[in-house]
Amino acid sequence: MQTSLEKLRKFFRLEHENGYANTAIIGGLAEMLNFWEGEARADNINEEVIQAVVQRLRSYDGLSPQSRADALKGLWKRIGDAYPEAQQKPKAPSQVEGRQEPRPHPQNQSQPKSESEPRKESHPQHQQHHEQRQRPPAQPRSESVAGARHSSTPAALDAKLTVLQGVGPKNAETFAKLGMYTLGDMLYYYPRRYDDYSQLKPIKELFYGEQVTVIGTIDSVHTRPIRGGKASIVEVIISDGTGGLRLSYFNQPWLANRFKQGNAISVSGKVDQYLGRLVMNSPDWESVEVENLHTNRIVPIYPLAERITQKWLRNVMKQVVEYFAPAVVDSIPESVRNAARVMPLGEALLQVHFPSSQEKLKAARERLAFDEIFYLQMGVLRQRRDWQSVDARRFVLSDGQLDSLKTSLPFTLTSAQERAIADIRADLDSGKPMNRLLQGDVGSGKTVVAALAAAVITSNNAPPAETSQAAIMAPTSILAEQHYRNFTNLLKGILNPEEIRLLVGDTPESEKEQIRAGLADGSIKIVIGTHAVIEGPVQFKDLQLAVIDEQHRFGVEQRAELRSKGTNPHLLVMTATPIPRSLALTLYGDLDLSIMDEMPAGRIPINTFVLRPQERERTFTLLRGQIKDGKQAFIIYPLIEESEKIEARAAVDDYETLSKEVFPDLKLGLLHGKMRPAEKDETMLKFRDKQYNILVSTTVVEVGVDVPNATVMLIEGADRFGLAQLHQLRGRVGRGADQSYCLLIPTREDATENERLQIMAESNDGFVLAEKDLQIRGPGEFLGTRQAGFANSLRMASITDVKLIEKARREAQAVFEKDADLSQPEHKLLAESLGRFWGEGKGDVS
Ligand code: ADP
Ligand code: MG
Question: Cα(733) to centroid of ligand 1, in Å?
């Protein structure tokens, strides 16, 4: 058998064994086309068979497993018909499963990938569309809906989609899958992208391999029978005045009737080469409505679901948008709109679907984005007001007390720390619960600020404060333990050791019980721990301060839970995730913000280098030099997969190699996520106590760990990390008085990637890096649960658009200052929309 067919058989067989999961080849079966086509031609396989294989494998990924099975079986049968020797043993999938013809399936390759209307001769599922075409779809079915057209009541927008002519329960179901239940939902179902017909590429400028959209007029349509009439190729020649292009569609004979000479179509796909000429094989196509070309040069492309086509949806959309968008009530008061200079809502909705120009589209998007941020901001302002509407206990700290606290510290506070402490001191004395976000780059010294706050709460001996307690929650037990040591040190003169306790998952049950009892009767004043602190059975006698460290590691619920352990306790959340200020104010508008933008004195900036993988030896030399000087080093390996098991294995392997082959003379410790918390702590402690020269670790050390004697941070696979995360890792060194080094080794030598890493070498400023990260990777990547959640509700707004954010924030603030309850008549609509925006179940956004 020809080797190309042999290969095919092998992969098909593998695919069959894998349950048609498209895993026989890494990246999917279509990947094999890169080499297979050439090999098949070299084997003299006939062109029809080659085309059939290309066709099916190219669309293979989009098929259901059942259709995939059908496709491969059908394909194999066809190959068998042309090359009987291929059907001989060893068994091919078709023989395993019986030799049936592939069942026609709406989703498989027997359908063109066209986004055009369903075909006449197609399957029953498409029947509906034909009915729909008989009448314009968006005529309201009932008088009452029609009557709502210009009545300015949003009620019509709440109407179910079945009020549309041509949308029955079946289609309504499809719409529901796309998140559209009402007419209003349709208006807010934004296009995924636009085809701008004013920006098309002329055919004569196409080149091989390019992915393009072109428009042309059909010159000719030919159907060539192949394989003795068992299959066929439809060949279409289109031209646009600059040149001609051949399109071929394998074995889709019905297409011949759908391509009409003289009609204009737009085709999108990859430009291929055949016998020296440029061609496109089975490109997506769509007949161009002349109206689109001339009047709507920018055409929306919507995200689709099964059973509806782009053209059909666009038609329904057009009817709905043109009919209802003008009737949409603009809830943003006119004064705000004027001040913000944004487009009216109705026009924005119209333009976002059917833009009349790129400028209008931009303005429309800006208006819709404005609304999102505006509502978001109104919501956080309201949340903040709700929090402030309750009373909290006052804790007064005299200057004398503050001074004596400060003198007990082993260092002088930075002025940024001083400012943060002054903010917190004022909050605690305000009679309202503190809700403060303390943001400071890694190493800026947030812990001591939190410790002072805890000292204020727990050392205040005037009744009724004598019972008050503080809880500090950290994301890992290593970090909790570190805080525990720091706190006991810092508060030595104020509390007895047994008044401060550590509670982590690993704490022995008997000790846990003891701690729970102590918290319940008030004999323990400060508890420091992981989420174990908020676990059900933990009750406080009188929790007055909740501190959450590295808050981005926690979910909204966990913060709410900790707060709920007390009655209106003061809340301090700390983060090293450096978010630009405007963004922080928007995402955390409900919190007051203290920024610590200053490092403790005497820190020497870390030297950062990006190295090529081959230069690893050089890093080892540097590392050895440092260790000779009595310093220590981290070597970090990336989390290869989401799986901790794999992560652990990779770390263990690397650890073995490093300790046996590279540094047999040194002491290496190993830390990874699969270890028990107690083991992790033990390793960390040993490292801190200099029992290891090198700590080999996964990213579990990312958060907050403090080992001042470590001067080298070597990061392997650096390209797998975001800049913000690399910065966090880098922050593990440079904490002592000596020069530290951060060495970044990417997996591969990749120019663009290394350019990104180079930013690390250029800046030691977490804020700068965060901005870059935002630009490069988008918000979802580095923001935590809460922020990502918000970012998801922002469908149009980009949180990198600082100008827009500031504008929307300003306007929201102005409205809030005038009418916080939105009780004035001109804010009635706004109040309703706000309710809708925040919907149900948003709950505590702390
Ligand atoms: P982070 O803000 O990352 O949580 P830490 O609170 O862990 O930072 O502090 C980092 C290190 O800096 C610790 O070793 C801490 O003792 C030290 N430190 C904090 N404040 C000062 C200061 N004002 N002067 C000198 N060292 C300080
Ligand atoms: Mg910290």
Answer: 12
